[in-house]
Amino acid sequence: xxxxxxxxxxxxxxxxxxxxxxxxxxxxxxxxxxxxxxxxxxxxxxxxxxxxxxxxxxxxxxxxxxxxxxxxxxxxxxxxxxxxxxxxxxxxxxxxxxxxxxxxxxxxxxxxxxxxxxxxxxxxxxxxxxxxxxxxxxxxxxxxxxxxxxxxxxxxxxxxxxxxxxxxxxxxxxxxxxxxxxxxxxxxxxxxxxxxxxxxxxxxxxxxxxxxxxxxxxxxxxxxxxxxxxxxxxxxxxxxxxxxxxxxxxxxxxxxxxxxxxxxxxxxxxxxxxxxxxxxxxxxxxxxxxxxxxxxxxxxxxxxxxxxxxxxxxxxxxxxxxxxxxxxxxxxxxxxxxxxxxxxxxxxxxxxxxxxxxxxxxxxxxxxxxxxxxxxxxxxxxxxxxxxxxxxxxxxxxxxxxxxxxxxxxxxxxxxxxxxxxxxxxxxxxxxxxxxxxxxxxxxxxxxxxxxxxxxxxxxxxxxxxxxxxxxxxxxxxxxxxxxxxxxxxxxxxxxxxxxxxxxxxxxxxxxxxxxxxxxxxxxxxxxxxxxxxxxxxxxxxxxxxxxxxxxxxxxxxxxxxxxxxxxxxxxxxxxxxxxxxxxxxxxxxxxxxxxxxxxxxxxxxxxxxxxxxxxxxxxxxxxxxxxxxxxxxxxxxxxxxxxxxxxxxxxxxxxxxxxxxxxxxxxxxxxxxxxxxxxxxxxxxxxxxxxxxxxxxxxxxxxxxxxxxxxxxxxxxxxxxxxxxxxxxxxxxxxxxxxxxxxxxxxxxxxxxxxxxxxxxxxxxxxxxxxxxxxxxxxxxxxxxxxxxxxxxxxxxxxxxxxxxxxxxxxxxxxxxxxxxxxxxxxxxxxxxxxxxxxxxxxxxxxxxxxxxxxxxxxxxxxxxxxxxxxxxxxx
Length: 877
What we know:
The chain starts with 9 loop residues before the first strand and ends with a strand. It is flat, with a radius of gyration of 58 Å. It has 8 domains: 10-296, no CATH class; 302-385, Immunoglobulin-like; 389-471, Immunoglobulins (Immunoglobulin-like, Sandwich), CATH 2.60.40; 478-548, Immunoglobulin-like; 553-625, Sandwich (Immunoglobulin-like), CATH 2.60.40.10; 630-703, Immunoglobulin-like (Sandwich); 715-783, Sandwich (Immunoglobulin-like); 789-875, Immunoglobulin-like. Strand 71 (813-822) and strand 72 form a beta hairpin. An 8-stranded antiparallel β-sheet has the order 1-6-8-3-2-18-17-14, with no helix packed on it. A 5-stranded mixed β-sheet has the order 20-26-25-22-23, with no helix packed on it. A 5-stranded mixed β-sheet has the order 69-76-75-71-72, with no helix packed on it. 31% of the residues are buried. It is mainly β.
């Protein structure tokens, strides 16, 4: 599979000496021989990393480094080492095939010094400590409060004699690598060792904590001087991460090469520490460490990625897709399925093609993304198609004290079944597993057990089955019945089911006592006991067979009911089956106590109770009498506040009406009802002979709504002026007298009056649809004048009800435009447009004294001619 080169060229820029907040580090050394004092000499380098854009503290201009005796932890040397150089590592442009790559830009500080140490059996530990790491690290808890310790081990001569002559492993993998979340990536932590016979082994390991946030230079300070000695605590990892899984379960490290591979975790920063063991003559003589913070970016890669292997054991058809996350950098897909026999189907340009392989076998598929374009990538994988793999298991036994035998019943059309993994599902045990093909297992406790079975074949097929077995302390016995009745000389077959061997007792009057279905014919009541033995697992149960020589039967006494009522028939009997006749009136003629609905005056019901070949007959007579006949009469509708005359009939001996509160003569068949609202009256009748239950019938008296008649307000007209009436409240109308009216039988007649008429008082009868009526009145006064507005010349507003108001009285006038009253200073004190509406002699609620006021009126007469009048009125107190 071709991969884009994600390890890109770094630009090394020499810069002036600064320090910054560390993001990683390592310590390594080169052996320089023995001096004249017999001490071993080493050139040691501390290498510290910081994110160039970090806002944290600067890299120290000098680093406090110490050497400790391994084992005792005593310090044998310490010093403040000046930074030798600082370089900047910048990741070059990744090109167009990576979208939104993360910024990878480190400042790297080097602190170098020489040291001579005397020979030692246990060796030495070189250490440097600094707080704190950057904040927001995904796989640590409270990372901004967590420091770091970087170490190197100088072996002693206690393990191998050449231990002190050691050159430490030195990590040489690229420090600047693009990692895109969700995409496959590689990151090298490879190291070199100048000692040619040493072997190197790599693993993830826990990062060390170091320093603190205290003041001064003590062990808890930001830059301890000297640093604390071993042993060192581990940093607090945030779940689900750990030192051995710093990037999640999808990322691993090759123990031979130090190459980290896998699917990158979510975007963020992760602390990764790799330990490399130096192995000499088969012994680990030292472990060197590199601690670095890796950025996983929210970026896209035009990547083609497939599973390492595809296996299909159910059929010939598989669905494929690019296993890399979808992204806009991929424009096209080209698939080759390695299946030339499939013809034109051997290639596809679908993003997720479905390919039916032409035959079982192994194929090599290839995916090319952006074929022929700038950001093209490809991937290949093996596809194994071996249909016809059918996992299956069987089991025998469910008893607690006996082993349960499990059997593999898997079949395969290709290859052979070659491995089995059983988990018998016992939660109280840890040894409930097996790799045998046909294992057995004895369960320690009862209950349902979920047995998990994983099976493979030689072609790579694998499947998992889960089957539940219910472990019991004794084999189950299922009985068709536990208590029954027979009649001499009948025989009876007992019915029991279960796994194992049956044995019944007593052995008298029984055939086939060692089966689940023996036949018995006892002459007396007998309790048959059954035992079921399943490979030594035993259960017991019993069946009671009651024996009689005849069927007892007592039927209920004869009875009389009302016609159309139902009645329950009763049989007191030890029978097992019943048959009633005739069947037409019964809900179920085979019930012991059926319901009957008799239809004849005399009804005889017969029953036969049976036990086996024995039976006993019986009968009961049910007589019916009709309910008394009653008729409350037809429903009625009455006018409001009018009576209803009820007319009831019946053939009984007595009767009652209800309710009686609105009835007159309620004890008679013909009461008079005065309901205030619609009411239902019920007539109930009893008969002293025949049906003892009463009969009833109802009549509804509907009360129509009250009529609210309206004829209009009294009014005034002049001779010859048409007057429009407008009555309300009903559906038809009649006016009395008809003097001056054009039609006395409509709601809105027009009246015109001659000079000889002074006034007329009309009565209008207002009817509803049912003919109910009520009346209203209106008085018309006829003036023998021209159209005019009359205004009194004086008024006395003293509250005696006489002449308390001054108001316009208009006759022959269609409307008053305005009626106004002014005081002697010209102030408007009253104004109205309503005929008859007047002034009470008050201004803003204050009574006015005696005085003369001017009034003016503007109006229009009934012929639409204007009227303008004015005058004076005297207020008298």
